Amino acid sequence: MRIVLVGPPGAGKGTQAAFLAKNLDIPHISTGDLFRANISQGTELGLKAKAFMDAGDLVPDEVTIGMAKDRMEQDDAVNGFLLDGFPRNVAQAEALDVVLKAEDMQLDAVLDLEVPEDEVVKRIAGRRICRNDSSHVFHVSYNAPKSEGVCDVCGGELYQRDDDSEETVRRRLEVYHTQTEPIIDYYRAQNLVVTISALGKVDEVTARAMDALKK
């Protein structure tokens, strides 16, 4: 099964991608992982991406598309894959269609995780990270520490990352609405979009997604 996963920041795409990929026995291919793997391995595309990133520029679509193409052609993806964070815009979606057609492949579904904007802001802006260990993550509403501002695990100070401020989150949402959301209409015209609510517990959302994909 070949799936594209879309949804706004804070929708839980990374978490759901990992569970869905495991349940479907297909590789989870994320843009972040592609960049890290290519850069660490020193591939031609990785070196190109690093040059743009070091200069503070966006990595061009053709580089991202090239990385995705190489990854989709690996042996573990022969029976399908789940794309997370790619395509990010209509141009990338069109390029992906060209790549898939050339390989005699096609997408089976585009899973759209739907979350109200206010919930996205609440989820992200409420996160608090431990200064001593960034793997210690809390949330003011969903996973509050026993003592405000203090890590339950090590006693370190909890803080809000700049990227998690409400102002930054709303800017990220604007970018999503402008650049990424249009791919939903693009794929809807191909009758590929399956929309589910991403509200609720992680396992509930996973079950909802699996049921929708089976249909």
TrEMBL record:
Give the binding site residues for ATP.
10-15, 127, 137-138, 200
Residues bound to AMP = 31, 36, 57-59, 85-88, 92, 161, 172
Domain of life of the source: Bacteria
Question: For the region NMP, what residue ranges are annotated?
Answer: 30-59
Reaction(s) catalysed by this chain, per the record, are: AMP + ATP = 2 ADP
Q: In which pathway does it act?
A: Purine metabolism; AMP biosynthesis via salvage pathway; AMP from ADP: step 1/1
- Where does the record place it? Cytoplasm
The Swiss-Prot or TrEMBL record annotates one GO molecular function as: AMP kinase activity
The Enzyme Commission number assigned here is: 2.7.4.3
Does this entry carry the keyword Coiled coil?
no
Single GO cellular component term: cytoplasm
Gene Ontology BP annotations: AMP salvage
**Record domain Adenylate kinase active site lid: where:** 127-163
* Record keyword Transferase present: yes
List the keywords (alphabetical).
Answer: ATP-binding, Cytoplasm, Kinase, Nucleotide biosynthesis, Nucleotide-binding, Transferase
Q: What's the main place this protein lives?
A: cytoplasm
SUPFAM superfamilies in the cross-refs: P-loop containing nucleoside triphosphate hydrolases
Q: What class of enzyme is it?
A: transferase
Signal peptide interval: none
Task: Give the record's subunit note.
Answer: Monomer.
Quote the record's domain comment.
Consists of three domains, a large central CORE domain and two small peripheral domains, NMPbind and LID, which undergo movements during catalysis. The LID domain closes over the site of phosphoryl transfer upon ATP binding. Assembling and dissambling the active center during each catalytic cycle provides an effective means to prevent ATP hydrolysis.
Q: What does this protein do?
A: Catalyzes the reversible transfer of the terminal phosphate group between ATP and AMP. Plays an important role in cellular energy homeostasis and in adenine nucleotide metabolism.
Q: Which family does it belong to?
A: Belongs to the adenylate kinase family.
Q: This chain belongs to which protein, by name? A: Adenylate kinase
